[in-house]
Each structure stands twice: as C-alpha cells, then as structure tokens.
Design brief:
Rossmann fold, 7 strands, 8 helices, SDR_fam, Oxidoreductase, short chain dehydrogenase/reductase family protein, 262 residues
Length: 262
C-alpha cells in the first residue's frame, strides 16, 4: 500500500536497532527522508546507508543521548538543518531497569524521569512550531503495554510511562485541529535487546532458565510467540500517514493479543 508519505521528513530516535529501527525501515520504504539518532555515530552511519538502500531519499545519523536534556535541542536543530524540517517525530528510547514498586529508589526515578518524560517532551516542544506552521505533523511515541496493563517487575517503567500517556492525550486534543496527530505504539513481547535484558534479570531473580521463561511467556501470548521487530514498524508508518489522519490521542497495542483488558 502506498501511504502517500513521499516528501515527508522524519526524525526517529533510538533507531540504531530494535523497534526504532523497524519504524525507520518502514518509513524509508515509503520514501521518507530520515534522520536517525542514537549514541554511536558509526552505527548510525551504517543505519543511514541501509535506509537509503531501502528507499529513503536521504538519511543521516545524528548522535544524541536522552539522558542530557540539552542534547534534545541540538538533535532537533540538527535534524531540521539536515532535512529542511521534521514532519514526523518518533520518540523512542531505552527502558529502565527491572524492579518492583517496593524496590524503587528516588535516584532511579529522577534519572529515568529525564529519559522517559522530560527529554521526549522537550524535543517535541522544539519541533512543534514547525509542524504547526505547516499545519501537518505526526508525533509517535514508542511506549509499552505497561501503559495499559502494568507489567510485573517493571515498576519504574509503569510509573513513568503513565506521565507520557497523560501528556500524549492532552497534547493530542490541543493540536487536533491543526493537522497534527499524537499516538502511542505499545509493544508487547518482541525479540529485542531490551527483552533479552529483562529476561536475563528475571532468570537471575527466579533461578529459571531464559529458555523456560521464553516458553512460559510465549504460552501466555495468544499468537504463541514473541513478535519480530519487522512486525512493529509498519504500524508506525501507517499512523504517520494521511490514511490515519482521524486517529489521535490513542494507545495502539501491538502484542499478539497478550493484553487481556478491552
């Protein structure tokens, strides 16, 4: 399906691998010019070259760290300079360490509040004036199914991502009449480095093997397996297109049917 995205420009954060890379791949295949961010220039340059081979008319890598708020301003400005503007912003970053609610520490809340809440909002605010001037824009946030159904052992993630749910819903209503949509993509269990980290932590805590944990969790997913990153990105490309212009302020769950609530 041609989503009509040719000529659009996107900044995809955390795009060197995993789910961010999957969205970047899907946008590149639709002819979107892309700036990708991450922490290592060498890996970003490799990704940029691969995105151009997939169909992106231009792709550039811009290193930035969400742990530093001031780097969000530099990232936004560099993406605008490289692409001539940013129409689609994909907010994506690594997740916090596993812990229970009783184990949460104030210092961890402060550290990850910067990465999960402050930095994404800051870069969105930096890029929104251009979107509003053009009367077109897309803000896509890669979140978690914990935004809908809190996940055991991920108390930090559950707690802080709830702030983004409130922000996204509020912002979407404020911008709805200006041609700008704001949506969240909530992945379930996908075969990514992040999932490998949480599995390793769970294995250390329970004494079970990673293979046993994967089997248990796969059995709890109606589709019966973990998702592949390539199955995630196309939803992001669709939500970035005019075909999804009437969809905003929502959490879109991509989880093989694992979330039980309706």
């Amino acid at each position: 399906m041609d989503l009509g995205l040719q000529g659009r420009r996107a900044l995809v954060m955390g795009a060197s691998k995993g789910l961010g890379r999957s969205i970047a791949d899907a946008l590149a295949a639709e002819g979107v010019a892309i700036a990708v961010s991450g922490r290592e220039q060498a890996s970003l340059d490799r990704v940029a070259a691969e995105l151009e081979s997939l169909g992106a008319p231009k792709a550039v890598g811009i290193p930035a760290d969400v742990a530093e708020g001031s780097q969000m301003d530099k990232l936004a400005d560099a993406a605008v300079a490289a692409l001539g503007g940013v129409d689609i912003l994909v907010l994506n970053h690594g997740g916090p360490p596993t812990c229970t609610a009783l184990e949460m520490k104030q210092e961890d809340l402060i550290t990850w509040f910067q990465r999960i809440v402050l930095s994404p909002i800051r870069i969105a605010n930096r890029l929104l004036p251009g979107m509003r001037e053009r009367k077109w824009g897309r803000i896509l946030t890669v979140g978690s199914t914990g935004m809908v159904q809190p996940l055991p052992g991920l108390a930090l993630s559950n707690t802080l991502r709830a702030s983004i749910v409130g922000w996204n819903k509020t912002l979407s209503a404020e911008l709805a009449g200006e041609g700008i949509t704001c949506n969240i993509l909530a992945p379930g269990a996908f075969a990514t480095d992040r999932t490998a980290e949480t599995l390793a932590a769970a294995a250390a805590k329970t004494g079970k093997s990673i293979e046993a944990l994967v089997a248990e969790r796969s059995a709890a997913i109606p589709i019966g397996r973990y998702g592949e990153p390539k199955e995630f990105g196309p939803m992001g490309a669709f939500l970035a297109s005019d075909r999804a212009a009437y969809t905003t302020g929502r959490i879109h769950i991509i989880d093989g049917g694992a979330v039980r609530c309706v």
